[in-house]
Q: What sequence folds into this?
């Protein structure tokens, strides 16, 4: 399997400096203190973690469903990542995943079971095991 790579640079001090990042062939953005800690315009690392988690989870769920004979028409997942001070240090304290699937022939309870399994087993979920709270809200579209 290939090694995934990213690059980041920060210029200046934290309150007035700025940085940028790249990942893969098409992901790039800028980051500032305001974009990370004050909700200002721009990007931040927590958004990248959320995007990675939502993508990995969606792929894991699609794979699990297909392996069980229920190929998904679509899986759509949003991730919200909460950054709060813990013992004076900024810490990711919560990740909320909200997913909706279009899966012909599958009931709501079965979908929930598959979604929980994907949450437990996707590589990004395992990498983020130190986050104190990771929640999942899963449902089928049109249900």
A:
């Amino acid at each position: 399997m290939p090694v995934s790579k990213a690059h980041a640079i920060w210029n200046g001090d934290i309150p007035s400096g700025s940085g940028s990042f790249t990942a893969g062939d098409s992901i790039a953005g800028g980051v500032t203190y305001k974009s990370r800690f004050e909700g200002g315009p721009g990007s931040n690392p927590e958004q990248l973690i959320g995007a990675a988690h939502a993508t990995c989870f969606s792929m894991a769920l699609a794979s699990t469903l297909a392996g069980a004979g229920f190929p998904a028409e679509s899986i759509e997942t949003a991730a919200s990542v909460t950054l709060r001070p813990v013992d004076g240090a900024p810490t990711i304290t919560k990740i909320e995943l909200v997913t909706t699937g279009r899966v012909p022939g599958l009931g709501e309870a079965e979908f929930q079971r598959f979604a929980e399994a994907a949450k437990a087993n996707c590589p990004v979920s395992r990498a983020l095991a130190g986050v104190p709270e990771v929640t999942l809200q899963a449902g089928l579209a049109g249900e």
